[in-house]
Structures are given as structure tokens and as C-alpha cells.
Queue: 2 jobs
Job 1
Amino acid sequence: MFIDSVTNIIQEFAFFMISISNVVGALEPSATLAMSAKAKELKAAGKTVYDLSVGEPDFVTPSHICDAAVAAMKAGHTKYTLASGIPELKAAVVEKYKSDYGLDYAANQVVVANGAKHALHNAFFSTLNAGDEVIIPAPYWVSYAELVKLSGAVPVIVQTDEADGFKMTAKQFRDAVTPKTKMLLLCSPSNPTGVMYSRDELKAIADVVIERDLFVVADEIYDKLVYPGNTFTSFPTLDQKLPERTIVVNGVSKTYAMTGWRIGWTLAPAPISKKMGELQSQETSNPCSISQYAAVAALRGDQKCVDEMLTEFTNRKEFVSQRIPKIKGLSCPAIGGAFYAFFNIKQHLGRTLCGTKIDNSEQFCLELLSKKCVATVMGSSFGCEGFVRASFAADMKMLTTAFDLIEEFVG
Ligand code: PMP
Ligand code: GLU
């Protein structure tokens, strides 16, 4: 008893002694993961939840990849690796960018990280100084602005319009450049809109990058999740001057249903890659050794599994693209890639839905979850109020019921 109360007093005292840093204190938690956690809480409480919150393929990791992980463990690959990743995986990444996009990278330009999110962190922390400006077109993925701020730099948001397909034009980009601009952050296919830039649109943006002597972080995590009629363009292919000013980010999480394995990477000029590897050597050591061997099997193995998942995603994309406009007051831009529908709810703002007045996308999503058990993510966390993101990385049965419930909610 006495010991317990002494411990409590010490803990309370410690609470007053240890304060949270200004930087981390100002950090917004990831809204996608927060909504997913709320959905999981409801599930744990016994509710049936229609979870369209997190962008995570619902497929299991293909068995040949899991087999490679088991084989790696049995072969004793359970120790530290090079901080920047095993040579086999670096070679497999180099091969992928050569065979898919004709790009010539060397192994010392690859840094394997703990997921693409961590690869982005490495990219920002290794290149940005306090006060540098990073141009980010909105709607943007929730972690971009926060990671840029953590590095001490300043996100400069360029608002794009639904009417323009949520794409930043070269003119909007040029107008946003100031003497402090250092970098552009681009994601195509986009999370959260699913929108894809054409090669010509990207070329016009690339010309501004070169003209204004800027750097680019090109998030290419959805390069293999591209729907028929659309073509993916890897950013450095647009001009021979681009590889030296681009950090490409990619990984196995989405393409191979490997979100939990935590493997992503960067492709960058060798001196930057060297520094990113050194940063990682101090912060995390290497990414999980077993996952790295699994990622080699993913990249070098049969790609039939990718085609099969894409076929299923294509069916779901067709379903949501047709279903959303049939719901009163909802609309959604054409989805070219990734697995998100970003739908407009503006006609419902100011209305009372299921007994609650809804003034913004956050209230919409929270009420939709609490009244209908459908989990989505508010547009405001992607820098775009008046919209809601639904991930269609969920099976057709779940999607059908979820959109029926959304229809009931707004009706
Ligand atoms: N970039 C984008 C655009 C994403 O949607 C995600 C989703 N997780 C990531 C990066 C991070 O991927 P990872 O899970 O490999 O960290
Ligand atoms: N990128 C996914 C999403 O947007 C996974 C969650 C996260 O890392 O934010 O939902």
C-alpha cells in the first residue's frame, strides 16, 4: 500500500518534471490511423463495423512472399543488416526501376526504410533546413504536412479544385514558388483522391522544377495500382535533369499487401542516399531483416498476384464510381489509381443527419461512424474541407452495405 502510494507520488512528480517538446506537442496525430483505431475499438466492443477508413489492402500477403520470410528466418537472416538495407533488396529495387521505367539507378542510390512513411521522413530530414518551403498540392495525404513540419521546414499548400480534377497546374505551382521554396511533394496516383496526372501535366510541372532549380519528392507508392485507361509516369523519366533533383519514394506495402512488414525505400542521388543511410543508422538501425528478404521475393517473384489484386480493385473501383453519384448530393472525381474515393458532401453540410446538425467533414465522419458504423476519413485532415475519403480496400459485400448505410445516413 505504502509502496503503491509512494510510486504514485513519484509518477505524478515525474509528470510535472517531463514536459513535451514544442515540436512534438504541435504534432497532429495521423487521422487515417486515428479513424482506423476508432473502428477497431467499436469492433472490439462487439459492433459490426464497415471499415473504409484505412488505406490497407484487405488481401493476405501472397504465400510465396511469406515462404521467403520463413526461409530467411531458417537461414539465420535474423541479425542486424546494413543500416541502409541488404544488397539483394537494393539490387531488386534497381532492377524494378530499370525494367518498369527504364531508369538507371545504382545500388548506392537506394535506402531501404521502415515503410514508405519512414522513407519520406528520411527524405525530408536529410534535405530540408528550418524555414525551407515545401510545396504540397491539396488534397494531400495526411502525413505529408506533419512530417515536413517535424523537419523544421514549412509546408506551403496549393489548393486544387474538384473542377480541375484536383490537379495542380504548372501555373499554380509557379505562382507558389518563393525564394524560400526548396521542394515539391507530388503523389500520383493520389491518396486521397485517386486522381492521376497525365505525362504532359507532369512534364509541365517538371519544367518549372528545373527552371526554378527545385527538388522533388515523388511518392510513387501506388505505381502498380493504376486502372485501365490510365498510365503511370515515374517522375524522373520526364527529363534527364530530374534524377539528380528527385527523391523517389516507393515500397511493398500497397502493391503486395504487405503493410505490416514495414518495407519502403528511396531512390536518390548517391550523396543524399549516403546521408539518409547514416540518419537511419542512428535512428532505427536496419529495417526488419526478415521483411527485407520477403520484399526481395515480392519484387523478383511472379507478379501474377499483383494482377489478381488489381483486377479485384478494378471491380471495386467500378462499383464505387457508379454507386457514389447515385446517392443524393454526393459526387466524386474520376478515379485513375490507388484505392480511394474522395467524395463531395457539401450539399449535406448545414443539414441535420440522423438527429445531428452536420457542419463539417469531421462531424460527418464521426456521426456516420457512431450512427451507422461506417468508418471513413474526413477531408479536412487531407487539407480539403467538404469531402470525405472512403478506402475501397474492402470486399464487395462490405462496400455494398457501407454505401447503402451512407445513403441511409444522408437520406
Ligand atoms: N505514401 C502514401 C501516399 C500512402 O498512402 C502511404 C500509406 N501508408 C504511405 C506513403 C506510407 O506507406 P507505408 O505503409 O509503406 O509506410
Ligand atoms: N496510407 C494509408 C492511408 O492513407 C495507411 C494509413 C497511414 O499510414 O496513414 O490510409
Job 2
Amino acid sequence: MIEVKVPGKLYIAGEYAVVNPGNKAVLISVDKFITIKLKKSKHKGSVKSYSNIRMIWSRQDDQIVVDQKDDRFEYIFSAMDIAEKYILQKGYSLDFYDIEVTSDLESQDGIKYGLGSSAAIVVAVIKSILEYYKVEYSKMDLFKLSAIASIKLNPNGSCGDIASAVYNGLIKYTSFDREKILKRLKTETLKDIVESDWDSLEIENISLNNEYDFIIGWTKSPASSINLVNKAKNNISKNIKFYKDFLHESNKCVDEFVKGYIKSSFETVKHSLEKNRELLRQYAENYNVLIERDNLFDLVEIAKKFGLASKTSGAGGGDCGIAISYKGFDVKSLEKEWKENKITKLDLSIHEG
Ligand code: PMV
Ligand code: MG
């Protein structure tokens, strides 16, 4: 049996800008996981996930076919499809297998934390299949295959979540042109695409600085990043001048954050997140999306009152916010005040991989 664990993620800076190819974001991966168990089966395969629902699959002309339809499984089957096509192009023949997915990326009541479960599932499925067939692969190969499986379903996502799930720790991610890759898929083999360079794509691991802690506050209201990103995207053409400046300034925040973090300059880290927060506020106002909703605003204001660097994480509208503290900070007092404002501090640490 193959067992694979892939961590969840959180955005630290660069959200929305990174959706545009060639722009940057910073992410961390956290020690909550999607776990996949994969074992060989005969004649037909199965996928068990989501409250133990079991889907049976088989193949027709090397194409996976599933009897029932359930949208929650589409990322899993997209990942299986891409992994199998790649394996075939590498000259292997296919077996049947049973996959079981378990997740720590939602609460006991089944509410998502916003830790990137779809991305982690895609990476975990592809990784488990590559390992089952004992295919040699690099992190970059795994990223590219997972990104392809993901953009086929959501071409507007930046794939920063996929990069974090593959590279772990703290990363600086520069996005690639998804439209170009989707176009190439029509005429080129997956193997050729994976083996080629993807122009602006860059993924860099940054060494962890143990002087700083990432503190995560959860609002308990789940948000749909896809809807928020799509809504803003439709409004971008209404103010291109702002958008260009936004991209430029957002990249500057990402670079400033990384510089401050590496050099242990708390003031720089704090300034970069404050600047990024202000940019996201303007972005939300210009393109009519609600980022700092309700208690997300309180989350950031309370953390700031304690002298921390803080902002929303990801698309906003719910999910989580982050705060960065320095050695010796009394986290209990922040936790108490967050709690009084209906914000739960999640018990998470960075997963280095
Ligand atoms: O809300 P999250 O953690 O899924 O983050 C979304 C980040 C965006 O930049 C808004 C979208 C993306 O795909 O990068
Ligand atoms: Mg989110």
C-alpha cells in the first residue's frame, strides 16, 4: 500500500496579483494534511472520501469512467486522469487501484478552514499514483502535473496553493500563464509539456526564521476563492490603470516581506503586510469584492493593537487571517481577545516537508 500526506497552505502576501501570470505571492504550508492510501485492486477501482462515500471507476480505452456523478470528486478524478495519461506516455501499463482520502483540512463539523484542500488533494492523488508505479519525478514535475489537473477545472486560480502543497515550508511563488498551458495541451503531449520550461514560473523555498511565529485566526465562515477571483476578474477592465499599479506594488510588498523576514527586520515585515493590506483594500473597493468581511477586519485590527504584523490570508471574505509575532510574544492575550470577537486561533505550525 502507498500512503501519502500532503499539507494545507495559507497565503501570506501577494493575493489576487499572483492570479496574473508573472506576479508573485508568499505562502506557508501548515501541519494539517490530506492523506491518501492507495492499494492495488482487480477489474475496477474505487475512491472513498467525503463522509465515506465510495465511487467506483473503471476504464474505457484508457480513459477513466465513473458510474455516478458527484462534483466533490472532480478534483480527484481530474488528478487521476492526468497522472494516468502521464504514466502511459512514460510507457507503463495501468493497474486498477482503490484510493481512500482523509482530511484534517476541515473542522469537526465539516466546515473548511480555507487551507487549500482541493490543491492538496490533487497533489496527493498524483503523488500517490507516481509512487505506486515507481516513476521517478522531481518536485517541479509533480507541481506541473498537479497544476495541469487543477487549471483544467479552475483556469483562474494562480496555482500558488499547488506550489505550497508540493514545496512545503515558506515559499515565494511566481505564477505562469495558464491559458498558454491549456492551449498547448490541445496539441502537445503531457510529457513534453512537463519537460519544457514554463516561462515566468518560479518557486523558491525560503529558510525559516525561528524568531518569528505565524499565528492563524479562523473566522468560521467558509469563503469561495473561485467566486471572489472570478467576480474581480470581470471588473478589472473597468480600471486598468489601477490594476497595473496594483500588480507592481503588490510584487514590491512580496519582495519587501521576504527581505524583512530573511534579515529579521520586524519593522520591514510589518510594513510590507500593512502595505499589502492597504492595496487589497483598494482592490476590493475598485473591483467590488468583499475581502475584509466582518470579523476578518476585527482579526487584523486586534492583532495590530498587539503590535503584530497582520492581514487577511487568501481571497478573504471569510476563512483565515494571519498575524506574525516575534520571540517572547504573549500569544494567550491575543487568543483571548480574538475569542471575544468570535475568532478561533488555529493550532497550526509551519510544515517544512
Ligand atoms: O482563499 P485562498 O487561500 O484560496 O487564496 C486565494 C488567493 C488568490 O490569490 C485570491 C487566488 C489564487 O488562486 O491565487
Ligand atoms: Mg480562502
